[in-house]
Specification:
613 residues; 17% strand; alpha/beta; Immunoglobulin-like; glycosidase; 19 helices
């Protein structure tokens, strides 16, 4: 055995440490982790995903926000998972639909996610994007009570967790304890990793809720609070005056979401635009401690999460994001950071992702930029694009990104903030504009027609054969439909449940109509097939793309590398098309697992994926 000097031994130990923690020491700081490029993302909204048991269901005190005067209505109870989404149950009677939406809870929790990991693995999912899990009174959880704890109702012992949290000094990480909900989440992370999957958490570092411990201290102590500089406070209450002069900035004017104070701003700050700046140092220190807690619980990065989705990222200065990236990558070199940047000028112009994707901020953004033009091509809308326009839009967006970031983009199609895909394809409106029956009485909320299903399935072929990592909003694979928020947040249509019929266009005048709702096996099978095709053909992950035909409503492109080539065909014309194939070559048709040569025949609204046998 050769004699090893001290330096050699240290290097071997360092490499072993990386291996044992599940890290990739070769991930450069400015590059996206390789695993993110092959990810099949599945986004989970925990409160509506699956109820793993009723003992931890929310109670009135868990969902009330006294500082805002938001108290659970008399007779309030958790809603039944399978009831009519547009119906009114008990305490909801004689109240508006929107008012009821705030108070509705269905009891989704972490045990429900654990119970369905096998389902997700069977579908082919490789990475979970969890909407906020932090302790908070709302259903969406962006109004944190505590950043450093999982919501008490997502775990098995809400009362015990509340008592345990009360023993901490929330400003001192040395006093933080692991609640039952925290421990169950860490179990979920272990189970996800055991299946070879990844998991990222969703956080908004831009604001907290009014029940957040530091904000509560400010409310009580006003200008004497140790945390007064954490927030954008314009004036404090004057005890010598009878009125209340306390005034502060909430995110986009929402009083229940007080903003963390921005500092060191050196460029013009405008919604929908990046700017140079940072956040209050005390809040930043707390955020970094929370980041450390979840990336490396008890100092073990292998037991921690695999990155973050960062909410309303444009609201925070680039200086903070650069520091945040340094902190994250110092703990976990192959962690993935994806930012939510969206509207430059709603509803017409999306933000430019360039400032966020140069290697010093994020690895990716939520890439609505690829979905919006694709919708206008594949769906039947009042804003149609032809194939050449789609190609130009996509190539323009990709050309603005470093090459490694193109492949790491989270290609979102629908989320908790958008209409469901089937409903988005069923309506002809401009993307995200008046996409609900409250603003547009002609907006269709019911079961889509057959043409919509066909068009959506073509889009899904494109999603899973294009550049970037595909994302699935929970329930899309079940065939769910729904208008813009709050309708995409219905409880999921699990196959083992029997659902009440759903009211159609409930807010429109006239006779009510109803739809049967439930798990759509055909839709599930289509997603599963496309996921398998992508996973079985690495060229669809890393290969280059070339558009071969982009004329009218005919689109053909290829994904290729030095050894492999996959051809993708779409016919959205009114008539059938025959595509001549390379002479003497036999192709495998990946969608139906057959062989073809000579000529490919596609009927209207058909697609094909071919690969040389």
């Amino acid at each position: 055995m050769p004699v090893m000097n001290k330096t050699t031994i240290m290097l071997i130990c360092l490499f072993a440490a990386f291996a044992s923690e599940g890290q990739n020491p070769a991930t450069p700081f400015d590059k996206a982790p390789e695993w993110s490029k092959s990810a099949i993302w599945y986004q989970i909204f925990p409160e509506r995903f699956r109820n793993g048991g009723s003992r931890n269901n929310p109670r009135p005190q868990d969902i009330s926000i006294p500082p805002m005067g938001q108290i659970a209505p008399e007779g309030w109870a958790v809603n039944q998972w399978t009831e009519d989404w547009y119906g009114q149950q008990g305490w909801e009677l004689n109240r508006s639909f929107n008012d009821n939406m705030y108070y509705r809870r269905y009891g989704g929790d972490l045990q429900g996610v654990l119970d369905k990991l096998d389902y997700l693995q069977n579908l082919g999912v490789t990475a979970l994007f969890m909407n906020p899990l932090n302790d908070a009174p709302s259903a969406h959880k962006y109004d944190a009570r505590n950043y450093h704890h999982i919501d008490v109702n997502f775990g098995p012992d809400p009362d015990g967790d509340i008592k345990l949290i009360a023993t901490e000094n929330p400003a001192d990480p040395a006093t933080w304890k692991w609640t039952a909900a925290d421990k169950l989440f860490l179990k979920l992370v272990r189970e996800v990793h055991r299946r070879g999957m990844r998991l990222i958490m969703d956080y908004s570092w831009n604001h907290t809720g009014v029940m957040f411990w530091a904000w509560q201290h400010v409310l009580k102590n006003q200008s004497q609070s140790a945390y007064k500089d954490w927030y954008e406070i314009r004036s404090f209450d004057d005890a010598n005056n009878p009125g209340n002069e306390f005034a502060y900035t909430g995110w986009v004017g929402v009083a229940s979401l007080p903003e963390i104070r921005k500092v060191d701003i050196t460029t013009h700050r405008q919604n929908g635009q990046p700017y140079e700046g940072n956040i209050n140092e005390g809040a930043k220190k707390h955020i970094f401690a929370v980041t450390q807690r979840w990336l490396a619980p008890n100092g073990k990065a292998a037991d921690g999460i695999d990155g973050f989705r960062l909410d309303v990222a444009d609201q925070i200065g680039l200086g903070f994001w650069r520091d945040f990236r340094k902190k994250v990558r110092s703990i976990k070199p192959d962690a993935y950071l994806v930012g939510e940047i969206w509207w430059d000028n709603w509803p017409d112009k999306l933000m430019d992702a360039t400032p966020y994707t140069q290697g010093d901020v994020f690895d990716a953004v939520m890439f609505y930029h690829a979905y919006r033009p694709a919708r206008y091509f594949f769906a039947k809308t009042d804003f149609p694009l032809d194939a050449a326009q789609l190609r130009n839009e996509l190539e323009h967006e990709w050309s603005r990104l470093p090459e490694d970031k193109r492949y790491a983009m989270m290609n979102v199609s629908s989320t908790h903030d958008t209409p469901r895909l089937l409903t988005d394809f069923y309506n002809a409106n401009k993307y995200k504009f008046q996409a609900n029956p409250r603003e547009n009485p002609y907006y269709r909320t019911g079961k889509p027609d057959e043409e919509t299903y066909k068009r959506l399935r073509l889009y899904l072929v494109h999603l899973f054969t294009s550049i970037g990592a595909p994302q699935i909003w929970n329930g899309e694979e079940m065939g769910m439909w729904g208008a813009d928020d709050p309708d995409p947040r219905k409880p999921l249509w699990w196959a083992d449940y029997q659902f009440a019929d759903e009211t159609r266009n409930n807010l429109q005048p006239g006779d009510k109509q109803y739809d049967q709702v439930g798990f759509n096996q055909q839709q599930f099978d289509w997603y599963k097939k496309l996921i398998a095709i992508r996973k079985d053909n690495q060229v669809l992950v890393n290969g280059k793309i070339e558009f071969i035909v982009a004329e009218g409503h005919t689109l053909v492109y290829r994904r290729y590398d030095e050894l492999n080539e996959v051809l993708v065909f779409f016919n959205l014309e009114e008539g059938a098309i025959n595509f001549p194939l390379r002479e003497g070559t036999v192709y495998k048709t990946l969608l139906n697992d057959s062989a073809i040569s000579g000529m490919l025949h596609l009927e209207p609204l058909e697609a094909a994926i071919l690969m040389k046998r």
